[in-house]
Amino acid sequence: MKPAPFAYAVASSVDEAIHTLQQYGPDARPLAGGQSLIPAMNMRLARPAYLVDINRVAELSYIRETRDGLAIGALTRHRQVERSEVVQRANPLLQEAARQIGHFQIRTRGTIGGSLAHNDPSAEYVVVARLLEAELVATGPGGQRVIPARDFFVGYLATTLAPDELITEVRIPRLNGKGAAFVKLARRHGDFAMISAAATMELNPDGTIKDARVALGNVGGGIPYLAAIDMTGQSPTPDLLADIALGIASNVQPDPDGTVDVSYKKHLAGVVARRAMETALARAKGEI
Amino acid sequence: MSAEVTTRQRISVTVNGVTHERDVDVRRLLADFLRYDLGLTGTHVGCEQGVCGACTVLLDGEAVRSCITMAVQADGCSITTIEGLAPGPGELHPIQQAFWEHHGLQCGFCTPGFVISAYAFLQDNPRPSRDEIREALSGNLCRCTGYKNIVDAVEAAAEAMAATARTGD
């Protein structure tokens, strides 16, 4: 239960990190918060030959409000997101998700860039990034590229990030008056999610739905699931939300993962989707 | 330019106010560094995968799992372990005192992690509700006590610390 031998380098800048990753190739891994990587190394599930520690790259740690929303440096810890008044103002959904990541002793180390790059199917930020169409800024030897969340997650623990690229910034649109909610089901508080859902709800002045979106996590394929739903112009009654949730439950195709039965997970997909929509709706109405 | 790659590194870490310089393997876990290299065996190692919380220490004031942090990552940092909480020899920190008075431990293996977690939590939230205490302690596992006395202890410690803060003692 100790890591296999590896060689270690401390990067002092993004450039230095990328050059080092490039020099040592796919056997080198960036070390951010390490809250998934080091347990995997302790269990010898991961044996990177080189670790490039980016924890001292100060330029990667910031939370900025922009015209469109938030620009968050990849090394920003979950705890910083959780405590940030800027995030609370611009995107409380992100904060609601951050608070549910592991326990606070994990959140003091874990980073937003690390969580997205790891793409654990049960990860909280992954679902929010997909729901809100976040953009990920990846920096590599050839410079920067901006990857929309829909193109970033490709399978279990897999993304379109190249081995010598780092996520350097995460851009998350502001909620702009939409109600939003993140709901997670786990056997115990702080556990990995069996399943999770995030929803946004935007209403017209007459109370009908202007726009509604739902995304789910850990429902198959290792990628966040964006529900293909259209409730535009309809009245957001409990029956409508329940019907939409049932539709989602019948559409998702969860993979067997050794935790709960697939049919039960389909049922849970409907439950979390409905709860997320109900809470998002109540928030859109200003009821809570 | 690439960063320098090494398998062994000299680090300087201030633990409980004392600065230590040591050569360590880069794969040395912070928990093992504290226990084996510095002899501070109060930090316990349970699961070695960041789940049980027994190894929790303060790294630059924030509670972290020392079993999933490398010692080299603490280079230049300040660490507080369970040995560093009490104000002096033969004395107890109010949280330790409350654990004693409320029987917040049985075998004691998980206790250092609980006390450090409670310390970090009470810095953030000096007057917590019982539910907030339970949530804050949910990342620490105890196999003996059933948690009730631990929650009682942290609740009492919060009151004692708030009373001290009021009187300025």
Commentary on this structure:
The complex is a heterodimer of chains A (288) and B (169). By secondary structure, chain A is an alpha+beta fold. Chain A contains eleven helices and 14 strands. In chain A, β4 and β5 form a beta hairpin. Chain A is globular and about 60 Å long. Chain A starts with 6 loop residues before the first strand and ends with a helix. The model of chain A has no long low-confidence stretch (mean pLDDT 97). Chain B has five helices and six strands. The model of chain B has no long low-confidence stretch (mean pLDDT 96). Chain B is globular and about 50 Å long. Chain B has a five-stranded mixed sheet, with helices on both faces. At the A-B interface, β1, α1, α2, β3 and α6 of A face β1, β5 and α3 of B. β1 of chain A pairs antiparallel with β1 of chain B.
Task: Please summarize what this structure is.
With 288 residues, chain A is α+β, with helices and mostly antiparallel strands.
What name is given to the CATH topology of the largest domain in chain A? Uridine Diphospho-n-acetylenolpyruvylglucosamine Reductase, domain 3
The CATH homologous superfamily of the largest domain in chain B corresponds to Beta-grasp domain
Q: Low-confidence parts of chain A lasting 5 or more residues at pLDDT below 50?
A: none
Name the chain pair with the biggest interface and residue counts per chain. Answer: A-B, 41 and 36 residues
What are the secondary-structure elements of chain A, in order, as H or E?
A: EHEHEEEHHHHHHEEHEEEEEEEHH
How much of the sequence lies in strands of chain A comes to 25-35%
- Round the mean pLDDT of chain B to the nearest integer and report it: 96
- Rg over C-alpha atoms of chain A, rounded to the nearest angstrom: 19 Å
The CATH topology of the largest domain in chain B turns out to be Ubiquitin-like (UB roll)
How do the SSEs of chain B run, as a string of H and E?
EEEHEEEHHHH
